[in-house]
Automatic annotation (TrEMBL):
Span of domain 23S rRNA (guanine(745)-N(1))-methyltransferase N-terminal: 9-43
Residues the record lists as binding S-adenosyl-L-methionine: F70, T104, G105, H192
Keyword Magnesium listed: no
Protein name (Swiss-Prot/TrEMBL): Methyltransferase type 11
Biological classification of the source: Bacteria, Bacillati, Actinomycetota, Actinomycetes, Mycobacteriales
Molecular-function annotations in GO: metal ion binding; methyltransferase activity
UniProt: Zn(2+) binding residues: C10, C13, C26, H30
Amino acid sequence: MAAVAEVLSCPVCGRGLVCAGRVLRCGLGHSFDIARQGYVSLLTGAATKLTGDTAQMLDARAAFQGTGFFDPIAAAVAGAAVAARNSTGPPPGTEVIADIGAGTGYYLAHVLDAVPDARGIALDIAKPSGRRCARAHSRAAAVVADAWRGLPLRDHTLTAALSVFAPRNPAAVARCLAPGGRYHVVTPTVRHLAELIGPIGMVTVDPDKERRLADGMAGLFTRVDSVAVEYSMTLTRADIAHLVAMGPSAHHTAATGEQLPEPFEVTASVTVSTYTAIAATAVADAHRDR
């Protein structure tokens, strides 16, 4: 936590935070205790429109991620982060990567393994996520925060941000990214887990998702890269039960896949998009024109 305290900001007054033992404190005296599990909550108690994942959902997600079926997606995110780093060339040791809606910290951990001198911040609104993320990686700090009420991060301090299967607040991310910083966004295609929609009632992917993503980024970000990741997974009934229980489908169906043949082929299909803030693009273009 001490390694990233300089990047964090007080959710009450917006001033910077410093780490003093087991407490984060701002210049006006607002203080936030670091829980014994290793995370800090920067929630202010006001109402939020986000609903965090439950401990049971995170348990199921960790179990599924532990099988390695989503490793190709994690590898693609890490590859995008490395490619962005190579193109922007931040000084070693200065990189700070935030995973917004980090869940178990699985994707951030893969990125930090690929960028060995970077510091990580795992942000999620759910306290069970904070507990998990605090032990996800030795260079990752866990922060409980509400992305929709503004990220508790100082302006222009992140070299990269991740949003993997998570709600997005592009304006908040744009504020926090340093010049040349990259925003890596993973979204499912309509083929993602499609074989499970009919048999067990998995939540469908909105066919308009790509357009809505573009609309949300418009005026703030320019997409500089896009990678399609699609492959087949051979799942057991236990794997399928974890898939159902780990995401939004858990709120809509009690099915576990017991009626399906075993093994069962299911498609993983996502797009890994990399964006740069429009202001950062303008600065880079102006520099090249000199």
